[in-house]
Amino acid sequence: MSDDTQLPVSPFAARQQVLRERLHLLISMLHPALRVDVERAFAERGKLLFQSPNDSSDTDAGNPPGSWPLLTMLVAQHFSPGIDTTLAASVAIATECFVCALDLLDDVEDEDRTAVIGELGAARALNVSTTLLALAQRAILSLTLLHIDAQLILRLLDTLQESTLVATAGQHRDLLAERREASDLTREECVEIAAAKAGAIMRLACLSGAICAGATEAERAEFAEIGELLGIAHQLDNDSHDLYYLLQSVDTSSGMPAEGSAKTDLARGKKTLPVVLASSMSTPLQERRELSDGEKQEYRRALDEGIMTTWGISLLYRERAYDLLRAISLRSPLAPELSLLLGFK
Amino acid sequence: MEERVIQDFVHRVTTDEVLRKELVSDPDGVIMREGFSPRVARVVLRLTPHLTIHGSIGAPGCWWNRC
């Protein structure tokens, strides 16, 4: 019996397939016991091996599986449409390994109760993260087999190392900020931390694609900036939505978020931008002292305003990136897939 | 600085009911009067229904695609 139901074909499907094949080749060298856990990490939502339960991931809200390596690959193909697919895919897989490694570290450091941490536990997740950082370098070093110029390989490795150092410095500042009062932090400092954390990651995704495709220095700088702006937008978008949804689960009797949320940022005292903005207007939530009904209402209003402002600033950074993309597309039109991935019209 | 402009505007709309009503009835007029840059104006237009009607922010991840 035939099934006439036709699922929509993703505009990213062919590239995702190339990337998955490259990823499987890369991890085939791992010991089977480790490979299973590495594959599990890549099966998280948004990652390259993620499979929607109904096998129609393109109808899901959010980004397509493997959106980070897709970004690297599409940027490379923007500059060099005929680029060797193995070259572009190898560099893109390095991006995927890097992002996945940092995501695992972030989950462990923030004590987030995500599905992958629940299954692997913190110790194995940390070991998988270490493996992924090594695999990111291995993916780039594999370019020697393609007889790629050594200078290009060194430049790609240097970019990866630099991004690692910037992102880990940002994460460290973020962790140290947990010990500070929200009222001690400023909007500028929160954006700086977002730029170092998420900005550095998306910057790498764009920049490495431009480098491997032979873009000029000016072109590389342009795409690096776009990546950083979109990374900041991404982080602030997450911060506003995480808090927004957390507040939806507020236990009205205590005025505090319910226990059991996967994201524990607020409970840990994370000084995300909406919390910092709210603290400048009201008593900080982190004090966890008994609040009067009036204080609760005032405080909730301040948080709502902080969330809305943070979302607005996130949109502002996205618009800044789009202004750059508009200028680029006047000189050289963007591929529809790249525009679609970035939500750029 | 554009960040400050957005922060101040959200605060004013949140605390000033007259401005909120005006933003519902004539968003273009408010944006024109405020003298926003084109980029800030695009952000404010995107925020307006959430500031004035929904009381909630837009869908997460909307910045990346399917927006």
Overview of the molecule:
The complex is a heterodimer of chains A (345) and B (67). Chain A has one domain (13-342): Farnesyl Diphosphate Synthase. In chain A, 68% of the residues lie in helices and 1% in strands. Chain A is built from 12 helices and 2 strands; from the N terminus they run ααααααααββαααα. The longest helix of chain A has 39 residues, at 293-331. Chain A starts with 12 loop residues before the first helix and ends with a helix. The model of chain A has no long low-confidence stretch (mean pLDDT 89). Chain B is 72% helix and 0% strand. Chain B has helices at 2-15, 17-25, 27-34, 38-54. In chain B, helix 1 (2-15) crosses helix 2 and helix 2 (17-25) crosses helix 4. The longest helix of chain B is centred in the last third of the chain and has 17 residues, at 38-54. Chain B is globular and about 25 Å long. In chain B, 22% of the residues are buried. Mean pLDDT of chain B is 84; it is low at 63-67. The interface between A and B is medium-sized, with 36 and 29 residues.
How much of the sequence lies in strands of chain B comes to: under 5%
Overall 3D shape of chain A: globular
Range of helix content of chain B: over 70%
**Helix percent band of chain A:** 55-70%
Structure class of chain B: mainly alpha
End-to-end CA span of chain A: 42 Å
Q: What would you report as the Rg of chain A, rounded to the nearest angstrom? A: 21 Å
Low-confidence stretches of chain B: 63-67
Widest beta sheet: strand line-up of chain A: 1-2
SSE pattern of chain B: HHHH
- Overall mean pLDDT of chain A: 89
Low-confidence runs of chain A: none
Largest sheet of chain A: 2 strands, antiparallel
Number of strands of chain B: 0
Count of beta strands of chain A: 2
